[in-house]
Design brief:
The protein contains two helices and twelve strands; from the N terminus they run ββββββαβββββαβ. By secondary structure, it is mostly beta strands. The strands form three sheets. Strands 11-8-7-1-4-12 form a six-stranded mixed β-sheet, with helices on one face. It has a four-stranded antiparallel β-sheet with strand order 5-6-10-9, covered by helices on one side. The longest helix has 12 residues. The termini are far apart.
């Protein structure tokens, strides 16, 4: 049966940390799902994204995250009665301080359905919205009231996918750019402003 498990797991050491360093936003139409390549060599890692070849040079838009309020959570939605399972991917980000450029980008994010890569504090990279893209499902743009209140953008992205967020086979930005190189081996560009 194809749903039988194939690996166990030992108790892990307490040497990890939580949180997100950054997200990288990719416009949905810049990638074709059919050009994604997965790990076919390492048993148990078949759901790890190795490369994704765009038709032309790809731009990823990086948003640095410096807050303990940023999080990536996945909800498993399974129904024995219906015989279905899907994964609800939720990404919460807080972007400090308002400015006119970010204001417009937040509006465009709300209109679109980008794919998003989340980078954890332990340099693991996850692809959200692989097949369907991500939607801004909630958010606020606020100035706060007191001098110490949050001023900026609080956004929640949601995706419903057949798989949980995909691990990407990389551990730094240089490897991430190479993993998304186009057909002529031009690495992806990471834009920060």
């Amino acid at each position: 049966m194809s749903c039988d498990i194939t690996h166990g797991r030992v108790e892990e050491c307490k040497d990890s940390v939580s949180g997100l360093k950054a997200i990288y936003i990719i416009n949905f139409d810049d990638l074709n799902e059919d050009t994604a390549a997965f790990d076919t060599v390492t048993p148990g890692e078949e759901d790890q994204l190795v490369t994704w070849t765009p038709a032309s040079a790809l731009t990823m838009y990086k948003y640095e995250l410096k807050s303990t309020a940023n999080a990536l959570n996945t909800t498993i939605n399974a129904s024995r009665d219906n015989g279905t399972t899907f994964f609800g991917q939720e990404l919460v980000v807080n972007l400090k301080r308002q400015d006119v450029v970010t204001h417009k980008q937040v509006k465009l994010l709300a209109y679109g359905r980008p794919r998003i890569i989340a980078r954890s504090m332990t340099d693991q990279f996850f692809m959200l919205g692989f097949a369907q893209g991500c939607d801004v499902s909630a958010g606020t743009i606020g100035t706060g009231a007191a001098l110490g209140d949050f001023n900026g953008y609080q956004l929640t992205f949601m995706a419903e996918e057949e798989l949980p967020p995909l691990f990407i086979d990389c551990s730094n930005e240089a490897e991430l750019k190479t993993a998304f190189a186009d057909g002529s081996a031009t690495d992806a560009v990471i834009e920060t402003s």
